[in-house]
Write a structure and sequence with these properties.
There is one protein chain. The chain contains two helices and no strands. The chain is mainly α and about 100 residues long. It has one domain. α1 packs antiparallel against α2. The longest helix is centred in the last third of the chain and has 51 residues.
Length: about 100
């Protein structure tokens, strides 16, 4: 299994676990709201908004981490490219 597929597998597993946890939390909140009678529909809406907000925050954090990883990798590639250019220049190879 390649590193990329292992990473993808771990991410998919983590997302599945988080979705299951979110569903469990939402079900728990829904049951408590129904048991409380009163204004349960408004409370369920608030609970859905809270779960949705956590998902957005988590997705934002994941995206920021991916951007940081890509930035680090691109800087490494640029440094490698420059080193190769210098090495080839020392060998009198020109770029077009």
């Amino acid at each position: 299994m390649t590193t990329r597929s292992k990473r993808r597998s771990r991410m998919n597993q983590r997302f599945a676990e988080e979705r299951a946890q979110d569903r469990a939390e939402l079900d728990d909140l829904r049951q408590r709201c129904e048991a409380a009678q009163g204004d349960s529909s408004a409370t369920v809406d608030v609970a859905k908004q809270q779960v949705s907000s956590r998902k957005v925050n988590r997705d934002t954090a994941d995206t920021e981490k991916q951007i940081a990883d890509l930035t680090t990798r691109s800087q490494g590639l640029l440094a490698t490219t420059e080193a190769l250019k210098e090495e080839l220049a020392a060998q009198k190879v020109t770029f077009v």
